[in-house]
Write a structure and sequence with these properties.
3-stranded antiparallel β-sheet, single chain, alpha+beta
């Protein structure tokens, strides 16, 4: 695994933790989360994975996401 790939995986985990614990009114954490997303959008060489999510009662649907940065695609 190259260094950029490793950094992006770590930043993705940090972004997830910030999202779970961040108050919407904490401007510094919101800015950090924005900067992490910008870095990942710029540097990730996306590896797209296709999956199926079964969510009752609506039923399931197919999703596409990058298994490096965890970004979802429509």
């Amino acid at each position: 695994m190259d260094t950029t790939h490793s950094i992006i995986r770590t930043l993705s985990e940090v972004q997830t933790q910030i999202s779970r614990h961040c108050a919407a009114d904490d401007a510094d954490l919101l800015n950090i989360r924005r900067l992490i997303q910008l870095y990942m959008d710029t540097h990730c060489k996306h590896h797209i994975v296709y999956d199926y999510v079964d969510i009752p009662p609506e039923g399931g649907h197919s999703i596409r996401f990058c298994d490096v940065c965890m970004k979802t695609f429509d």
